[in-house]
């Protein structure tokens, strides 16, 4: 990294490093080779609205765009999302892209935001790193998105549930269907909070195709109790226990 670089050039150096760590092959536009690896990140790729900072290719096809900004932008990256969307919708040089690119990133090299334009109501979120090419490859091969599948979860069968548990799960799923990223269930001691949580997880895994669910507790004892609850949980629409259907792993260390 040169000491004479401007802030945006420094940001691009950090972005290059993170892309490399995520498994992308970084290329310049005048040395384009889409046959190297699964994913290629091409700098200064020409579009009909000007050069995009990076265009991401997966399996030789354009899949995403990165808008690079100086680190001073910080958490104001949302103000440049419209610019990213313009590049995503633009006509790319040298390839015949007929649809807008689905995966949109804004990054300073320190903060990165991501939008999946295929979502029912697309919105950006901060991510820890750029996704691997294989991850975007998998998403592109799926018939529908998680947020789309959350819209079609079947009605809850209340058999075996207390009234408070039924209300909690129905409200949680309604929150998901309204594309709210966070929800809080508040229940009294002894009302079956863990059983409610396992029921909600079971429905997310079975009907929404959730891939992984992280269940956090603040003491080891609660972790052991949650694991026992999952091991004994028998859904009301299947004769097999939760742990026969899905893998449960209790993390033993940090």
Strand arrangement, largest sheet?
Answer: 1-2-3-4-5-6-7
What is the distance, rounded to the nearest whole angstrom, between the alpha carbons of the first and last residues?
34 Å
- Report the portion of residues in β strands: 15-25%
Strand elements, count: 7
**Mean pLDDT across residues:** 92
Main beta sheet: strand number and arrangement?
A: 7 strands, mixed
Low-pLDDT ranges? none
**Percent helix:** 25-40%
Q: Return Rg in Å.
A: 22 Å
Secondary structure class reads alpha/beta
Order of helices and strands: HEEEEHEEEHHHHHH
Number of helices: 8
State the shape: elongated
Concise summary:
Helices cover 33% and strands 17% of the residues. The chain has 254 residues and is of the alpha/beta class.
Topology diagram in text:
Layout: H1 7-21, E1 25-28, E2 39-47, E3 50-58, E4 61-68, H2 81-89, E5 103-107, E6 112-116, E7 125-127, H3 133-141, H4 146-149, H5 163-177, H6 193-207, H7 220-232, H8 242-245
Parallel strand pairs: 1-2, 4-5
Antiparallel strand pairs: 2-3, 3-4, 5-6, 6-7
Helix pairs in contact: 5-6
Keywords for this entry:
254 residues; alpha/beta; seven-stranded mixed sheet; 8 helices; elongated
Walk me through this protein's architecture.
It contains 8 helices and 7 strands. With 254 residues, the chain is α/β, with parallel strands linked by helices. A 7-stranded mixed beta sheet has the order 1-2-3-4-5-6-7, with helices on both faces. The model has no long low-confidence stretch (mean pLDDT 92).
């Amino acid at each position: 990294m040169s000491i004479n670089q401007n802030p945006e050039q420094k940001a691009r150096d950090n972005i290059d490093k993170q892309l490399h760590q995520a498994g992308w092959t970084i290329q310049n536009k005048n040395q384009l080779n889409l046959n190297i690896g699964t994913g290629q990140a091409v700098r200064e790729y020409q579009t009909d609205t000007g050069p995009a900072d990076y265009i991401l290719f997966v399996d030789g096809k354009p899949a995403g765009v990165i808008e690079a900004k100086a680190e001073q932008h910080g958490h104001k990256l949302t103000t440049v999302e419209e610019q990213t969307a313009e590049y995503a919708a633009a006509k790319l040089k040298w390839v015949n892209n007929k649809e807008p690119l689905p995966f949109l990133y804004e990054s300073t090299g320190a903060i990165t935001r991501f939008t999946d334009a295929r979502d029912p109501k697309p919105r950006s979120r901060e991510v820890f790193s750029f996704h691997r090419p294989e991850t975007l490859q998998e998403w592109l091969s799926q018939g529908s998105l998680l947020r789309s599948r959350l819209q079609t979860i079947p009605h809850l069968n209340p058999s075996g549930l207390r009234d408070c548990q039924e209300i909690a799960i129905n409200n949680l799923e309604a929150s998901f269907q309204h594309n709210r990223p966070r929800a809080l269930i508040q229940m009294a001691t002894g009302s079956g909070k863990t059983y409610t949580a396992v029921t909600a997880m079971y429905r997310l895994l079975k009907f929404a195709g959730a891939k992984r669910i992280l269940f956090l507790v603040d003491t080891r004892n609660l972790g052991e109790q949650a694991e026992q609850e999952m091991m004994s949980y028998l859904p009301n629409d299947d004769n097999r226990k939760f742990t026969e259907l899905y893998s449960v792993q209790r993390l033993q260390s940090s």
